[in-house]
Specification:
There is one protein chain. This protein is an all-beta fold. It has 2 domains: 166 residues, Sandwich (Jelly Rolls), CATH 2.60.120.260; 103 residues, Sandwich (Immunoglobulin-like). It is built from 1 helix and 24 strands. The strands form 7 sheets. Strands 3-2-4-10-7-8 form a 6-stranded antiparallel beta sheet, with no helix packed on it. The protein is flat. The two termini are 47 Å apart. 26% of the residues are buried.
Length: 332
């Protein structure tokens, strides 16, 4: 089968959405490796458990619900996906990317027995280009090895407890895959990241878009901002050195009521939908959807009070939330 358009409910990357994606959440084979006996997928001869990804094995919803200490674990599953078409030179017309939302703590990944990537850090996403590891015939196998030594107190752990049973303010440990795993197909040139920065004083929104892939051809980015059926801006920019960094000015009729309808606030969380296209020599190669909002947030200092006031500023409302000001200046 191929990757087809699916419902975006639960899409794992809402600010950079593509229509074609395949979720790998669900039932995987699962095994612990407390003695670190296994190094490659072929070493794992027995899979005594099944686990529901993306729930950590310590959780009830995973189906494992094992909160004891484990140094390593393995995951494996098959999924149906055709190899991307190849041209006469054997080059794939599209790239196939395998994404992991988060794996705690060190991950090694194989596809059809071929090593594709490794990653360290339990709270950040990562991906691998698996285009040329896919088999013809449609059935693919992905295997993940996870290392997460519960006795290593040097690695970042947030509030995960190092004791067998949680105590005081500490939470139960989280091991392994705990965010969505998914596959998508993209062109050799495609969007890699988007960042939006609103500016209420200038009545504009800054866009910082990054692309990946060959840069020899002329690339153009088309962006359209809208609220419902109303288009706020529609601009076209050249891609220089794989990025676009532009400030998009919004038409301002000078009427406060019109502005208020666009501003984000807790009681009226208006979102601005964004559609972006990437064209190479006039041909569409990538298309994504995103969103942003018009709002500003500040934390003015108060000399006579240990607390700070977080202000969500808009012309329509100013919502204040009390937050404890930590000694290091952060707001917790």
């Amino acid at each position: 089968m191929d990757i087809v358009a699916v419902n975006w409910v639960g899409y794992p990357r809402p600010q950079l959405r593509r229509k074609r994606w395949l979720s790998l959440n669900g039932t995987w084979r699962f095994a612990y490796d407390d003695d670190l006996r296994w190094r490659v997928p072929g070493d794992v001869l027995d899979w005594p458990h099944q686990i529901e990804v993306p729930f950590a094995p310590e959780s009830k919803k995973s189906g494992v619900h094992d909160t004891s200490f484990h140094r390593a674990c393995w995951y494996e599953r098959e999924f149906a996906l055709d190899h991307a078409p190849l041209d006469a030179a054997g080059v794939a017309s599209e790239r196939t990317l395998l994404h992991f939302g988060a794996v705690d703590y060190q991950a090694e990944v194989w596809v059809n027995g071929e090593f594709v990537t490794q990653h360290e850090g339990g709270h950040t996403p990562f991906s691998a280009d698996i285009t040329y590891t896919l088999r013809r015939g449609g059935t693919q196998r992905v295997t993940v090895r996870v290392l997460d030594d519960p006795f290593d107190l040097e690695k970042p752990r947030g509030k995960q407890d190092w004791r067998l049973e949680p105590h005081a303010i500490w939470y139960p440990r989280t091991t392994g895959i705990w965010q969505t795993v998914w596959v998508e197909r993209v062109a050799d040139v495609h969007f890699a990241s988007l960042r939006w920065t609103p500016n209420l004083e200038r009545w504009e929104i800054a866009l910082h878009a990054m692309t990946v892939g060959p840069t020899t051809d002329e690339l153009r980015l088309r962006v359209t901002l809208r609220v419902g059926p109303n288009i706020l801006a529609s601009d076209d920019y050249g891609v220089v050195h794989q990025e676009v960094h532009r400030r998009i000015g919004l038409s301002d009729p000078g009427v406060d009521d019109f502005r208020n309808e666009l501003l984000w606030s807790p009681d009226r969380p208006t979102l601005i939908e964004a559609d972006l296209q990437l064209r190479r020599n006039g041909v569409l190669v990538d298309e994504v959807s995103s969103y942003t909002a018009l709002r500003s947030i500040s934390a003015p200092a108060r000399k006579t009070h240990p607390q700070r006031t977080i202000v969500c500023a808009s012309a329509r409302t100013r919502s204040r939330l009390l937050a404890r000001h930590a000694d290091d200046g952060s707001v917790r």
